[in-house]
Amino acid sequence: MLETLTDVQALSLDVLQFLTQPKPEVLRGFPGSGRRFLAMDGRFVLVATARDPGIYEYAGAMRQATNNHASVTVHTGSSNVTPAQYMQAVAALAPDVWVALSDDVPSDCRPDRAAKAVDRSAAWLSECMSVAAAAPELSGAAVFAAVQGGQYLRERQRCAETMAAQPGVAGFVLAGLGTGESPSQRRQIVEQVVQRLPAAAPRLLCSVGTPEEMLEAVAQGIDMFDMGYLAGVTAGGYALSFPLDPGAQQQQQQQQPMPASSGSASTDKAPAADGSSDADAAADGGQDCSKINLWAVAYRTDKRPLLPGCNCFACANHTRAYLHHLLQAHEMTAQVLLEVHNTHHYLQFFKAIRASIAAGTFAAYHEGFLQRRQRLLMGAGW
Amino acid sequence: MAGPPPMVAPSPQPGSSSPALHFEVLAQCGRARAARMTLPHHTCETPMFMPVGTQGSVKGLTSQQLLDLQCQVILGNTYHLENRPGAELVADMGGLHSFINWPRGMLTDSGGFQMVSLLHLADINEEGVTFQSPTDGKRMLLTPEHSIQVQNRLGADIIMALDDVVPSTAADNARFEEATHRTTRWIDRCIAAHSRPHEQNLFAIVQGGLDERLRDISLKGLVARNTPGYAIGGLAGGEDKRSFVRVVSQCTAGLPEGKPRYVMGIGYPLDIVICSALGADMYDSVYPTRTARFGVALVPQGVLKLKNAAYVQDYRPLDEECGCMVCRRYTRAFLHPLAAKGLPFAASLISYHNIAYTMRLSGQIRRAIIEQRYPSFVREYVAQQYPRGGVPDWVIEGCQLAGIELDLRAAGQGAANGAAKAADGTAPAAEHVPHAEEDTCSRATAPAASSGGIGKEAGACESGSLAAWRQEQQGHG
């Protein structure tokens, strides 16, 4: 399915999945690279990260971490990993970019724990980099340092400064977010950290995902995101449906108040992607302002694609009614098709973001999104 | 789009024409035959294996992948689809083909098999069978008329008569006797209820348990009804395999030469090879996809149980002769942790390979028949699965019934060994030990060639573009 997603630029891999099953030796023993073992084509940038948003366990790292090892969540549960073990897996993957091991604490940990996490993360960064310096597989790879510090601005600032001062670091990860901090706290943390990082270095934000969160982070200077959000949306049976250009659509609607129906068998009940039938659809539990819920009976006989106009594999081949049936029947193809659509839609979203930045209209683009949301919230009375 | 099949000049080979089906034997080799069967949605080459999409999805695969895999016909199930989402909804969506976006042949089973699989929820009498829904407990009376009405709405190319199916392991002779006669009474009700004979083909199903006399009664009764094709039912339910091959042999011999013969529930590769030797044309089973979900891959030598630690560092593809998408890209070592963790991705990939394997096997069988070398193909296939001897008695007996002499050089033909394997329901050579026989895994066998070998395709699906077909469909209706 990946080959149908022609706009993919990079893939993020969780290093922790390659500690035990498969072991790093398995990838190393393969005649060819770790990338070939995973059948991940050379056209993708491989980014090896230290947290899989799909199985991340809140505060999992708090339990057994010491100065010598991190506590991480893997498939079988909690596990301890030293920087040396971690780097073995990184080297086996031979990625283009790797994130150094850090002490991943949630936002609401105690201040002394956050301080300890900053100290450990700095020490482990040095340790990881010295291992990497001796690993031929990683000679061309870029290292990203993880900025920890929980919700405490002082710790975040201290961590950002320490990491930025480390020579040889190519980029930075704003880590430990999406763990219970408030939107204003996150805004402040991102702002304070970004200020202290070199302007030319790329910045990766992990475990943050809704379209509005993405736009806010982009506005604050974030360059890269992982796609954990999509896994959650897909698992819930949702298809992303927010318009990629909300401003343009708003104008269109002013001229044409009722969205054009696409000849569905149930036009009166089926919600459109946007517009005046949103409130009806919301009443059926069928959608909110960014996605539609394919479990909802509203889509039982809906012959339209997940998102009219979308040219992803799922939308080109299948209807909402079929996806609704697949979910009801617990058929795993439902997740395959939804993931294809959701990934495609987010890739198009980022294309639109890049285009608006290049055109100097990002602020208006961002504003258009917020206005649309506000309009829908007011209109639907949510 | 389902015009009546073209009439052709009489050929020396057996064949038949019905309003919605044209069947033409292309070659016979002993009792085995290769044929072309024209259905409203696809022209199929037999013998063929048909993957099962019980609820409108072959588990773990998209319809585009099934097209890539050269599948010709896929199954849906009447009872399950009526239960969810309901045949009326499917009909509103343009029929099952359109609903699941599958341009080629489809076959729906009547719900008869659920009298076995959901027996604990079924109550059977002369009128029909009442099921209690496994999902919401609602009761549904499935009569022959209702089953056919549902199948008419679903719109598959081939629909199956509602038969009275008794688990083949049952010990109640009176029940088999009753079911045999009832199945014959029900076929008349099915034929009478069938409202789309020019677009859909109703197949009768031979019953009679493992009893030669009852099978004979069933055969005679059903052949007299002259349906476009016939199925052999009531098998593949755990009966002993010697009885199984005897019943298949008796039924294929008793069915018309010029009509398709479908052995229901057959999916073990060796069963397909033996049944084809006995003159059967069509098979269906969830086996390739279900076993894949348990982490088991089909290979010419038997099966690979990929959860086994032996594959931790095995960098070979699943099957070196295969060349399917999975075998080109991934190794056993890659699949092992995915299968061991039970990830859905593993289920999808192994299902893909297992269907590819089964489709390729069908192609090899067809070619061997057409090239008049089926006996040697069977000998090689059996030798490959039992490299150290121990060919089960039922295989030997099946081959004898088919007039194929097996090459049993290996000493110590163990009947007990074979019987035990058949009894526990595993595929032949299921004990295949990785690494123990490096040479057998790399040995070239029957001309594998491409996975193609399927004749002309119809319409837009020739290019393999499902999206194009979908657009065409929507344009029409």
UniProtKB/TrEMBL annotation, chain A:
GO annotation terms (biological process): tRNA modification
Cofactor: Zn(2+)
The keyword Hydrolase is annotated on this UniProt entry: no
Keyword tags: Cytoplasm, Metal-binding, tRNA processing, Zinc
Annotated spans, Disordered: 244-285
Function noted in UniProt: Non-catalytic subunit of the queuine tRNA-ribosyltransferase (TGT) that catalyzes the base-exchange of a guanine (G) residue with queuine (Q) at position 34 (anticodon wobble position) in tRNAs with GU(N) anticodons (tRNA-Asp, -Asn, -His and -Tyr), resulting in the hypermodified nucleoside queuosine (7-(((4,5-cis-dihydroxy-2-cyclopenten-1-yl)amino)methyl)-7-deazaguanosine).
UniProt source species: Chlorella vulgaris (Green alga)
Bias type Polar residues, positions: 257-267
Gene3D superfamilies: Queuine tRNA-ribosyltransferase-like
Domain tRNA-guanine(15) transglycosylase-like: residue ranges: 19-374
Positions with biased composition (Low complexity): 272-285
Residues the entry annotates as binding Zn(2+): 310, 312, 315, 341
GO cellular component: cytoplasm
PANTHER family from the UniProt entry: QUEUINE TRNA-RIBOSYLTRANSFERASE ACCESSORY SUBUNIT 2 (PTHR46064)
Subunit structure: Heterodimer of a catalytic subunit and an accessory subunit.
Highest taxon above the source species: Eukaryota
Subcellular location: Cytoplasm
Binding note for cofactor: Binds 1 zinc ion per subunit.
The name this protein goes by in its record: Queuine tRNA-ribosyltransferase accessory subunit 2
TrEMBL record, chain B:
Region feature RNA binding, mapped onto this chain: 265-271, 289-293
UniProt-annotated location(s): Cytoplasm
Catalytic activity: guanosine(34) in tRNA + queuine = queuosine(34) in tRNA + guanine
Binding-site positions, substrate: 109-113, 163, 207, 234
Residues binding Zn(2+): 322, 324, 327, 353
EC number(s) reported in the record: 2.4.2.64
Compositionally biased tracts (Basic and acidic residues): 432-441
GO cellular component terms given for this protein: cytosol
Alphabetic keyword roster: Cytoplasm, Glycosyltransferase, Metal-binding, Transferase, tRNA processing, Zinc
Molecular function (Gene Ontology), one example: tRNA-guanosine(34) queuine transglycosylase activity
Region (Disordered): 422-457
Location of the tRNA-guanine(15) transglycosylase-like domain: 31-385
InterPro entries per the UniProt record, alphabetical: TGT, TGT-like_sf, tRNA_ribo_trans-like
Protein's GO biological process: tRNA modification
Cofactor(s) demanded: Zn(2+)
Biased composition (Low complexity): 422-431
Annotated active site: 109 (proton acceptor), 284 (nucleophile)
Top-level EC class as recorded in UniProt: transferase
Principal subcellular localization: cytoplasm
Reported function: Catalytic subunit of the queuine tRNA-ribosyltransferase (TGT) that catalyzes the base-exchange of a guanine (G) residue with queuine (Q) at position 34 (anticodon wobble position) in tRNAs with GU(N) anticodons (tRNA-Asp, -Asn, -His and -Tyr), resulting in the hypermodified nucleoside queuosine (7-(((4,5-cis-dihydroxy-2-cyclopenten-1-yl)amino)methyl)-7-deazaguanosine). Catalysis occurs through a double-displacement mechanism. The nucleophile active site attacks the C1' of nucleotide 34 to detach the guanine base from the RNA, forming a covalent enzyme-RNA intermediate.
UniProt similarity note: Belongs to the queuine tRNA-ribosyltransferase family.
Subunit structure: Heterodimer of a catalytic subunit and an accessory subunit.
HAMAP family named in the record: Q_tRNA_Tgt
Protein name per Swiss-Prot or TrEMBL: Queuine tRNA-ribosyltransferase catalytic subunit 1
